[in-house]
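INFO  loader      accepted 1 record
INFO  loader      residues=204
INFO  predictor   begin
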Amino acid sequence: MTNLTRPSSSRENTLIMNRFDLTKRLVSKLHAKEAVIGGIGNNNFDLWANGQRPENFYMLGSMGLTIPIAFGVALAQPERRVFALEGDGSLLMQLGALGTVARSSIKNLTMIIFDNGMYQITGKQPTLTNSCVDLVSIAQGSGITQSCWAKDEAHFEQLIDEALTKDGPHFIATRIDDKTPVASTDRDPVKIRLGFMQALSLNQ
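INFO  predictor   done
INFO  writer      dumping tokens
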């Protein structure tokens, strides 16, 4: 039997980076009122800590729905670039969303996956990416051709630049550490919803 090995672009061959730092690098490049959907827990905590942009949506308790929500925003406002910040555990709950995104050929959606191989916020229980699952391979197999691992911070920034200037969908996976977020989101769902709706209003 042939011994199959993962390609050099696999999860194991990427630098372990920091979610807050990567989020900061992303936010620094947003100058055209791009929408950012921050997945539950640490993803939106670090997004919040990088400055409360009105175009940010901070999810509370909706595990697995970051990409579906971002997909809906991108469909509703095709002229606006939309970014989804999702964790490996949450994405594993909603893998079917990747096929839906691919089937739509949506051009303005970028999915950024922060993968530390664990359910960090609930006790660091390992996810399947800690053993046998490669999320980029799944995204590519779902039909999202522009899917890859960010090798390091410079490569991550290059991929963001491409997502801001080229048609998508884009799927950018990053391997991150388990550092504690530096802040916690203001947990007021009504305020978050109304602020985001106002920021995305076509009348603005």
